[in-house]
Amino acid sequence: MSNSWPIHGGRLRPLLARFGLPQDQPMLDFSANINPLGPPGWLIAQLGAWLGDVATSLGRYPDPDDCSAEQAIAKYNGVGAEQVLVTNGGIEAIFLAAALHSRPRAGQRALIITPTFAEYARACAHYGLAVTTLVLEADPQAGHAAPMLLNVEAVERAMPGCALVFICRPNNPTGSLVPKAAIQRLLDVADRHGTTLVVDEAFIDFTPQDEALTDLLGRYSNLILLRSMTKFYAVPGLRLGYLLAAKETRRHLAERQMSWSVNALAKALVVPLLSDVDYAARTHAWLDTERSFPERLAKLGFVVPPSHANFYLLGDIGNGQTLPDASEALMEFLLQRGFVARHTHNFAGLDGHWLRLALHESAANRQLFGALEEWKSQRHQIREGRV
Ligand SMILES: Cc1ncc(COP(=O)(O)O)c(C=O)c1O
User: Fold this and answer.
1) What mean pLDDT do residues 350-356 have?
2) Domain count across the chain
3) What's this model's pTM, rounded to 2 decimal places?
């Protein structure tokens, strides 16, 4: 049953249809890894007034000489404005990075560290760039089979002939975070091979400490950082992201960007979003409270590998292994109770054996906990032959 799963989270209709469940059931969505606080309150409250202002500008193209968004992003990240390119969501940043080598030399390819976000492979395919993958490895110390560890030597060995290496950090869907030192080592090797390292930091704002790689941009011209404002500010409909790179690389990428790809409203919201320190503080306070929630699920007997992001993998054990059948049955069980989990069928290396769940606010997490407790108790009764 691994075909035709929706390739992104938050696709409720096809999921309910797949399991023959009614479409109008109220659902708590744990499949989309978006800040559950929702967009900053002022955004909704002021949208009418904003739209009024922006509406007057809709009769014109967004001003290509207005650099206020780039300047705000540069200030926020401590880089130069000439290193910033605002994009139509993180997705456009991914496609632009792939476009950098849209006319690959013979044998040139991209290396993608998997399991990871499916859009890197899509972007490479779009630009005719062949892809090889390297699967993260299970940590023998960790007591679970989730592929979480980057084998740096294996990446180094695979590097010759690679135009690009895509690494997602923290990684969607595992939540694992390649250490900064490993990235730095890879950047040195990449430099010798003429390889560009593309690090997708779409979830970096959720990491506990300042883990971003921004400070490496000054030292490595072969580093491109991809960012999304979607997840942290809970604005997926706005389509707002950006990339950071060396000045020359940024110029090459800008040449490949579709003209006026970022709309006036999205651009106008960059400054107020990045200035909203209260929203960022509230998000981190929520995360500090809820970060240990997955450990509570582990105590119920689920396998929950450590995550550095606002989502985590969850596996259920059958005969000593996480089994796709168990995760599919669990997914259906949760859907019936009004909880949407993210399947992992289209993440090579996970192959449906796990579910991905987003962290929510505590009330919703408690409800999910109750359902998972019920699942465990039912399974126990089945094993004991009581049902
Ligand atoms: C790792 C990663 N990068 C980028 C994106 C794209 O984000 P955006 O909505 O800003 O295009 C996603 C969306 O799920 C993602 O998971």
Assistant:
1) 90
2) 2
3) 0.94
